[in-house]
Design goal:
The protein is mainly α. Helices cover about 45% and strands about 5% of the residues. It has six helices and four strands, in the order E-E-H-E-E-H-H-H-H-H. The strands form two sheets. Strands 1-2 form a two-stranded antiparallel ribbon. It has a two-stranded antiparallel sheet with strand order 3-4. The longest helix is centred in the middle third of the chain and has 15 residues.
Length: about 150
Amino acid sequence: MGEPAWRGRGGGRKEECEECSGLLGGRLEGCLASEGSEEGGERSAIESFINQFVAGVAVTTMATYAVTDPEKRFFLHGGGELSSLEDLFTELQTMEDHVYAHHVNEERNDFSRWVREVMGDHFLAKKIELARDRDELLKCLFISLFR
């Protein structure tokens, strides 16, 4: 039904939609305010919603939990240190099994304790504590970071 309502699609720049004033990433082909695509076909409501959601994630600021005091950083078994939830999320993706098992086992959950005592987020700490495995912990952190 016409051109999308926003201008300047290239290079990953953030542009503003002329109709809804929302910020859009350069990969998005339209916004919820536009009804058509460049190819001339009707855009389904679901596709528009998904594209808008993806654009929102791309420009949304992550929740920031970071420590500035070097003594409150999390020191990993075998080396390395974490100063934010983003660091923990990133490190968990490549962390060796023995390092993970040192910090999370039947006796303790060092990550949960750090989030509770240093970050002060008791709710997230409980969710981390209840995570059954590393994948569940990663999902929990992802949701927390990109809410």
